[in-house]
Amino acid sequence: MPIRQLRPLAPQAGMFMLLDVSATGLSGTQFVREFYASQRVSVMDGAAFGAATATCVRVCFATDEATLDAACRRLQTFCAQDVPRLSARGR
Known about the structure:
Blueprint: E1 7-9, E2 16-20, H1 28-39, E3 44-45, E4 56-60, H2 65-88
Antiparallel strand pairs: 1-2, 2-4, 3-4
Helix pairs in contact: 1-2
C-alpha cells in the first residue's frame, strides 16, 4: 500500500532508495530521529548526500524479505499515527 506522505525516488541501481519526506512536514533529519524513536527502524538522513536530498531519507534493502516487510509496516504506522501528531506540534 502506498504511503501518501512519501515519494519514492526510483534508484538507478543498487540496494538503496531515497524517499522524499517533505510532505510529512518534517525535515530528513527530524524524520530519521522521530522514526527511530517511535518504531526502532533506522534510515539515513538524505542531507548526508548534499542539499538536493535534504528532504529525503535513504533506505537500504540489504536484508531478508520478512525484515523489509516489518520495516514497511512500521513506516506505515509511523506515517499514519506519529507524523500527524508531530506536524501538529509544528516540528
